[in-house]
Design a protein that fits this description.
This protein has 485 residues and is an alpha/beta fold. The protein contains 14 helices and 18 strands. Bound molecules: iron/sulfur cluster.
Length: 485
Amino acid sequence: MNKSLYDQKTTFYIKTFGCQMNYADSEKIHRVLMQAGCLKTLDPTQADIVIINTCSVRQKGEDKVFGFIREIRKFAETTGKHPIIGVTGCMTRKTGMAKRYLETPERDQVYNITLLDGNGNFWNWDDPLLLRSEDIDLVFRIEETGHLTKMLSVILGRDFGNDEKWEEYLKISQVSADGASANVIIQTGCDNFCTFCIVPYTRGREFSRPIDEIADEVRKVVAEGAKEVTLLGQNVNSYGKLTKKKLWNEATFAWGKTDEKTPFRELLDTLGGIAGLERIRFTSSNPHDMTQDILDAHFEISALCPYLHFALQSGSDAVLRRMNRKHSYQDFKTQVNYLRSKNPLFSISTDIIVGFPGETMEEFEQTAAAMREMDFDYAFIARYSTRNGTTASKLEDDVSASEKARRWSILNDILRESVAKRLKMMMGREEDILITGIGKDDTLVGRTRNFKEVYMPRSSEITVGSSVRAKIVGVDEWVLRGEVV
Ligand code: SF4
């Protein structure tokens, strides 16, 4: 048992892997530990508790988790300071603390937990993943974050603040790393089952929070100083599918076919009326679940920013079908063109996978052509890698690594060109910039409303979190340079 946990203020460090949802989840863990009286440290070697929030999207991500744990343990051997190591996130969704580990004599206390057994299936023996490491003290699913203090109480053998108010994970308000921008989770899980994706298995079925609960949380973060809120979910456009079971009808609400409002649009309308909230963004959006009213919201709700992260994945309809993506390239193009016809500076970023099983040269060329045609403001281009547990893992990974690298490089060159072209369109404009940080060379860093990063000379009276007007005076490869007006 770590003596320092009794002798002084308990410190914690949270290591987050993966997507923005995971970062938001980590902010919830931060809140729970902070309210239990712990202090956050930015140095994992100084922490009494290290929580690792994991990502399962790639095997590499899982390997990194075990590498990080080994590093912490190795360092602990030299200092004698052994932190409690806890693992949560996607890797633990179907994984509980390894039975073999629990049965070691010094973990008897943990084995005897009854408080948490039962309803939440707190311990889950059937996934051998964590047998790969004996260095983990604690494993919990992210939905069990509300029980974290109880778990620590059992492991540490002292009351660590069993706070009943954390009963529901989604209601735990987050601690924002940057006071001006807050993440708010509106929905979790995904029902789309894209064949390459592990999320529906790690996060489970889609679940949406009620509008009132989200609106209350947004009001709270705005009252605390947030000017920008990013609404997070794996599939935000289908928000409300479960909470309003019969209201949502995919056929009726298919893009462009109705004047009625989807639950997600209702949510945006509600949040758009909150005084003091200057910017709303959301992610992730799926072209298949996108509707006309959500696209229109960008021009009808003043706080909703002209930026959309919209995952195309491939420009080939045949590949999209193999991916079980239910949109076609034409669907995607129609939606993007609609946004840009109303605002040519509307920014679109996307996700692309190259070398998906069976991707022919012709199919790849269709993706390259789509990237040229769509002029993306940014794209995350990934080389396909097999993810065990997904449907695509049963397909032969038949595009060689060198060919994937070649295709990736071609797409990256196209991306450079489109990014440069889109950035140049901003030259000479005066923009509202929300200051998000201070750059390495003592510059102010901020974002335009259409999510372009802008670097400006530092000025002592401008602080992080403030909004300024700036003139765009230059382009530096992936970012803009500006001068405060
Ligand atoms: S929409 Fe597809 S890629 Fe996105 S989380 Fe759901 S299954 Fe995964």
